[in-house]
Amino acid sequence: MPTPHRPATAARAAVFAPLAGGGRAELVAQRLTDAIELGLLSHGEKLPSEADMARQFGVATVTAREALEALRSRGLVETRRGRDGGSFVTSGAQARSGIAARVEALSRVEIRDMAAYYSAIATMAAELAADRATADDVAHLRELVTATDIESDASSRRGEAAFRLEIAALSQSARLVAEELRLQAEFAPLLWLSLKEQPHRDLSRESHLAVVAAIEEFDGGLARQLTARHIMHSVEWLLEAKG
Hints:
By secondary structure, the protein is mainly alpha-helical. Helix content is 71%, strand content 3%. It contains 12 helices and 2 strands. A hairpin with a 5-residue loop joins strand 1 (77-80) and strand 2. Helix 3 packs across helix 4 (61-73), helix 6 (108-132) packs across helix 8 (153-170) and helix 6 (108-132) runs antiparallel to helix 12. It is globular, with a radius of gyration of 18 Å. The termini are far apart. 44% of the residues are buried.
């Protein structure tokens, strides 16, 4: 059985997963901007060096450098020189407007299409996890859910990311894990916008606990159904917010 992705490493892996089909500086900058907005990269956090970032994203070093320059120009990153220098996250406020602009640019058809694909990946992972998770895995999932501070939208978003990645890891499918990682950056930041509202954070916890219970009972069909319902609820909120 593959080693499960734990919350901190799983969420970070999602941020720095290789870009599909290579990458441009704009795509790298967008990935990092989304991660800052979601709280996956927090204020004051040091980013990898340009060389390390380029290797993780699968892009040229100059591409990573251009992406960091774009983030600096937006006030999202600052670069310090010297022995303890590097590039550090400075804010998430500007990133929120960028996420909103992306939602506005997408049509309702595009949003539903992206959601359908994301749901297909997440629900299959949940069904397989119910068949393959151990008692220790279930205990860890429940601990992960209850440890999330649902009074905080940033914590709720991090918790959502970690939960989905854990479920994918428990499916024991390397392909599902890789696709969940990719979709974490491509679509999930839009899907999780509903978590800025307390009722949706409460609903997210209830849904996650219900999925954990279904996995504990080896009920893959129910785990799949509950996952699909939660994602659809978030999609409907997103479409309504788009107007």
